[in-house]
Design goal:
Blueprint: H1 3-15, H2 29-44, H3 49-66, H4 71-89, E1 94-96, H5 98-101, H6 109-112, E2 119-121, E3 135-137, E4 143-145, H7 147-163, H8 170-174, H9 179-182
Parallel strand pairs: 1-2
Antiparallel strand pairs: 3-4
Helix pairs in contact: 1-7, 2-3, 3-4, 4-7
Length: 183
């Protein structure tokens, strides 16, 4: 999860006059907790990282499915599904474009030597390369992201706006209505 995007979303919500009044309730929160634990296990046991990451994505999708009545969660679910399919098609790891990743200020040795628990090098043999981490994003924190990550970031932004009582509805924007004005 992109903590910088979440923090930026809170700043934007505050600038829009949003305030946190009540934390929304989510159904089946245990699926999200299990997913986080599996992510932790993937870092602790990198040899089985692919399996833990794959299971983690499955539990997160179950969490999103049970909370799909919210537009922001549905956008999250699209991005998470795109990333999950890519990870599952590449045996538990998200392929990373090394040409884009070389712009990052940290070492890529774990990815190159295969010890990174979550990423592998994007090669001609990688499945679904167009859904892999191929987009260099220099701001706010430099990283290489996927198309799925773009949906996840948008979902996170919309979720924070809703939590801060300044919801934005993409459907409402498309129809020319001010969703926030109705609430």
């Amino acid at each position: 999860m992109s903590i910088d995007i979440i923090l930026l979303s809170f700043v934007i919500a505050l600038l829009r006059g949003g305030r946190l009044r009540e934390v929304p309730k989510f159904a089946k929160l245990r699926f999200l907790i299990i997913s986080l634990l599996l992510q932790g296990c993937s870092a602790l046991f990198p040899a089985m990282g692919g399996l833990f990451v794959s299971l983690s994505y499955l539990f997160t999708l179950l969490f999103f499915y049970h909370n799909r009545e919210h537009e922001d969660i549905r956008i999250f679910m699209i991005g998470w599904s795109l990333n999950a399919v890519t990870i599952w098609a590449n045996f538990g790891k998200m392929p990373l474009d090394l040409e884009q990743a070389r712009k990052l200020p940290y070492s890529l040795e774990p990815v190159i030597n295969g010890t990174d628990f979550k990423h592998s090098v994007l090669t001609a043999d990688s499945n679904l390369p167009f859904l892999a981490d191929i987009i260099y994003m220099p701001f706010p924190i430099a990283r290489v992201i996927s198309i799925g990550d773009l949906f996840i970031m948008l979902g996170a932004f919309l979720l924070v706006q809703r939590i801060m009582n300044k919801p934005i509805s993409l459907k409402g924007l498309r129809e020319g209505r001010s969703y926030a004005a109705r609430n």
